[in-house]
Write a structure and sequence with these properties.
The structure holds two protein chains of two kinds. By secondary structure, chain A is α/β, with parallel strands linked by helices. Chain A has helices at 56-63, 85-88, 108-118, 123-137, 152-164, 182-197, 209-215, 233-240, 255-263, 292-298, 314-326, and strands spanning 7-20, 26-40, 45-49, 71-76, 79-80, 92-95, 170-174, 201-205, 218-223, 226-231, 244-251, 267-275, 278-285, 306-311. Classes of the chains: A alpha/beta, B mainly alpha. The complex binds adenosine-5'-triphosphate and magnesium ion.
Chain lengths: 327, 266
């Protein structure tokens, strides 16, 4: 028997209506989500990737009770996000991040104390809890400074601290490491992993592919309001056609040669980019047989070729999926 | 259930605390909120200077009311507008406590600062007049005065809901402010207004409360002619109605903004 999922959505749709022009005459309808079905297991880190405007924040807000879906249903921790919002809210944390969303005229400690009270963090534990989260996000030294003096990254850390203050069972992180310096970003990823070790389920959106690859057990790619793929990174590699990526760079390729490359055994996908006179072909390769010497042999007219082999990265997969969807 | 009401009370005090800290972080805001009552007090004194003491009292009660409106009612709506401006409406609404309790905490703070505003008007006029103003029933007057503020706060809560509803609430409130000064009889008796508007004035708790204050303070004052107790009943009833409306309006408004998705707009 599998445990019931931490998140389950059925055909979630969400449209926004905005008005355009003077005196609000024209109503523009944007469909941000066009039928999203997802399941997230308890205790996993689930990653949601997708281009700007794909609908990631919209979905995150729906799951964290900040938006009501236009259609469809979603359950988080077994509770309906619309009907049972009041019971769900104490159990979830949401980090939307950004420059806004904090009380600028008071310090970090007071910001946290306010939300600790709103979330009903036991009074006896409140101070200790605040110190603990300040320490965990690395803001302990700046805790008494007013938030208006904070840099963007410091604000981001405070957003994260607030999100975990009430010890949620389920945490939504919308681009948690945006604006953080490399060291802080790494510490934040460490924090995320330590939360999971404590049993927290995490739903994360990010534009940093290595971050998703490093953290997430499973990943969904959202494009223009639709999930175009969801799987483990390994599963996604198979989906886009292979573990291995070979890059072939050189000058003056003939069409026939390109076709020959495409026909090589194990090649599942071929893309090219031009850099001035140079062209770079990127091949996704399913098998281990196709080696750089074999490619060099098939392009015998080009002794100047530069061939590199690497493991197909999540970024490669992501670009393949998003470009495919756009085409 | 007990745990829930406990956390609501905590949210209320947390919000009160934050309102005070925010104020203390920038106390220069005190200056405009002090200047307005002083000006209101001086203007009404100059207008009615040389007339009878009771007429001066009539005028300054209205002036005090106007400055309290600024502090209490306007302040309550404005604080919610600030939540929109800062982008804190979203995290506050994801918290388990209903937003109404956050608003109530701020309303308490605005009520206290409104009382200061009212007291300043009195002080200014008393200084200009050269002696304390003659009050017929000082104790009752002060108690009623506090109630007036609460009635303003009740209207303020409804205005807060408007700010949650839309970022255009400020526009509505600015127009509303003028209508309020005239409609509730702060500036001149509402019997001078066209007859059709009188029933509308009676929908505002401050109309009743202000009349009760005047009945109490000014010997021989007629006003709405329901007498002190009639006024008081009217004031209590309308205040209760506003609080009841605020309760339901808030949960509906919360639902509405989650549907429209305009929480982050400013
Ligand atoms: N309040 C709103 N009113 C109107 N349209 C909106 C609103 N919020 C989002 N949208 C639209 O919905 C779509 C999805 O937006 P969303 O913010 O979810 O994208 P995203 O995937 O989070 O993008 P990003 O990577 O840039 O954060 C966009 O087309 C956006 O313009
Ligand atoms: Mg987003």
């Amino acid at each position: 028997m599998s445990p019931s999922p931490a998140i389950r959505t059925r055909n979630i749709r969400r449209a926004f209506e905005s008005r355009k022009g003077f005196l609000f005459n024209e109503v523009v309808r944007t469909e941000a989500l066009k039928g999203v079905d997802l399941e997230v297991d308890p205790g996993e880190i689930f990653g949601l990737l997708g281009p700007n405007g794909a609908g990631k924040t919209t979905l995150t807000k729906i799951l964290s009770t900040l938006l009501i879906p236009t259609e469809g249903t979603a359950e988080v921790l077994g509770l309906d996000v619309v009907r049972d919002a009041a019971r769900l809210r104490p159990q979830i944390g949401l980090v939307l991040g950004g420059e806004r969303g904090l009380y600028n005229r008071v310090n970090a400690r007071e910001n946290l104390r306010y939300f600790a009270d709103l979330y009903g963090v036991p009074t006896a534990e409140r101070s200790r809890r605040i110190e603990e989260v300040l320490e965990r996000v690395g803001l302990a030294d700046a805790a008494d400074r007013r938030v208006e003096e904070y840099s963007r990254g410091m604000k981001q850390k405070l957003h994260i601290a607030r999100g975990i203050l009430h010890r949620p069972v389920m945490l939504f992180l919308d681009e948690p490491t945006i604006g953080l310096d490399p060291k802080s970003a790494r510490e934040t990823r460490k924090l995320v992993r330590s939360l999971v070790a404590d049993g927290v389920t995490i739903f994360l959106t990010t534009h940093y592919m290595f971050e998703a690859e490093e953290l997430c057990q499973r990943i969904a790619v959202l494009s223009r309001g639709r999930i175009v793929a969801k799987d483990t990174v390994q599963g996604l590699r198979r989906l886009v056609g292979g573990d291995r990526t070979l890059e072939v760079e050189g000058y003056g390729f003939e069409d026939a040669e390109v076709n020959a490359l495409r026909q090589l055994p194990g090649v599942s996908r071929l893309k090219y980019e031009e850099f001035g006179p140079r062209t770079r072909y990127t091949l996704r390769v399913r098998t281990t047989e196709l080696t750089p010497p074999a490619i060099q042999a098939s392009l015998s007219g080009h002794p100047e070729l530069a061939i590199r082999e690497r493991r197909t990265s999540l970024e490669d997969i992501y670009l393949d999926l998003v470009e495919e969807e756009a085409a | 259930m007990a745990a829930r009401s406990y956390s609501r009370l905590r949210s209320l005090t947390a919000s009160l605390r934050l309102a005070i800290l925010t104020f203390l972080a920038d106390p220069q805001w005190l200056i405009p909120s002090m200047i307005a009552p002083v000006i209101f007090g001086l203007v009404s004194f100059m207008l009615f200077q040389g007339t009878s003491a009771t007429l001066v009292l009539y005028a300054i009660l209205g002036a005090g009311m106007m400055s309290m409106w600024g502090q209490t009612l306007y302040g309550s709506g404005w604080a919610t507008g600030q939540d929109r401006n800062l982008g804190t409406l979203e995290p506050t609404l994801t918290a388990p406590t209903p937003y109404l309790y956050v608003v109530l905490g701020r309303v308490i703070w605005n009520t206290i600062s409104g009382l200061f505003g009212g007291a300043i008007v009195f002080a200014v006029v008393a200084v200009a007049y050269g002696r304390p103003l003659p009050l017929a029933h000082p104790l009752e007057f002060v108690l009623l005065f506090v109630f007036v503020i609460l009635s303003l706060a009740a209207v303020g809560i409804v205005f807060s809901a408007a700010y949650v509803y839309t970022r255009y609430a400020g526009f509505i409130q600015n127009i509303g402010e003028f209508a309020f000064y005239v409609g509730t009889g702060c500036m001149f008796p509402i019997v001078l207004l066209p007859f059709w508007s009188n029933p509308i004035s009676l929908l505002f708790p401050p109309t009743w409360a202000l009349d009760a204050l005047r009945v109490l303070a000014i010997p021989g004052y007629q006003g709405l002619s329901w007498g002190f107790w009639g006024d008081l009943v009217g004031a209590v009833a309308t205040t209760a109605a506003y609080l009841a409306i605020a309760g339901t309006v808030f949960s509906r408004v919360e639902k509405h903004v989650l549907e429209v998705g305009n929480l982050k707009d400013w």
